[in-house]
Amino acid sequence: MTTDNLDSNKLRLLSLLALYTKPAGVENKYDHYIKEYALLSIIYDLIIKGVLDYDYSARLVLWKGAYLFMNISQEALADLELLVEKGYVKRIKFSTRGYLYVVGYSITEKGLDIVRKYPDHMETVKDALKCECGGIMSIVIEDDDAYYVCCDKKIRIGCLSTEDVSYETQPIFI
After folding, report:
1. How much is the pLDDT for 12?
2. Separation of alpha carbons 174 and 140, rounded Å
3. DSSP string of the chain?
4. Mean pLDDT by 10-residue block, N- to C-terminus, for the chain (174 residues)?
5. Which of 18, 6, 5 has the alpha carbon at shortest distance from 124?
6. What residue segments make up the domains of the chain, in order of their start?
7. What digits encode the pLDDT tens for the residues 26-54?
8. Are strands 34-35 and 153-156 parallel, antiparallel or unpaired?
9. pLDDT value at position 94?
10. What does pLDDT average to over the chain?
11. pTM of the shown model
12. Distant-in-sequence, close-in-space partners of 80: CB < 8 Å, separation ≥ 6
């Protein structure tokens, strides 16, 4: 835990948001947000790569107008909520042209101050999201999945590829 009571996962979530969003005044007078499904897709990828230490499971979501199962971390959503409550992250809800509601997240100045105090977490996140050219990959949401895009390449994230998890249970006799 840090002096700000933020563990590695929360610091890396802030670092992720610092890479893909900006508060007003940093580059121009507007906040830059990342849509929730793009953010959740990257979070899933960072879990798979071992950068974030969260569980995930398939959850039914409305993905580009169709209901699909997406691998989502409820723990990450809870941490995002905590970061919003502490004022490190802003959340906005807006509607699309098709009248669907979308949630977006953006880091705040207060959140950027925290990220600057812990540059090792930012480097870990950057390393996981770097293209072979050295730049941070962009993300696009398509009908069949989310993809990283860089250097004229598309890399499938796989957040819509749910897994069968086998399990076994035994009766408990009292």
Report:
1. 96
2. 53
3. --TTS--HHHHHHHHHHHHH-B-TTSSSSS-B-EEHHHHHHHHHHHHHTTSS----EEEEEEETTEEEEEEE-HHHHHHHHHHHHTTSEEEEEEE-TTS-EEEEEEE-HHHHHHHHH-HHHHHHHHHHHB-TTSSBPEEEE-SS-EEEEETTEEEE--TT--------------
4. 77 96 78 92 96 93 88 95 96 82 92 94 94 91 93 92 73 79
5. 18
6. 8-156
7. 667 788 899 999 999 999 999 999 999 99
8. unpaired
9. 85
10. 89
11. 0.88
12. 13, 89, 91, 105
- Tell me how crowded residue 86 is: count the other CB atoms within 10 A of its CB: 16
Tokens 């977006």 correspond to: 104
Q: What is the dihedral of CA 72, 74, 80, 82, to 10 degrees?
A: 180
- Token pair for 61: 């979501």
Residue found under tokens 């796989």: 158
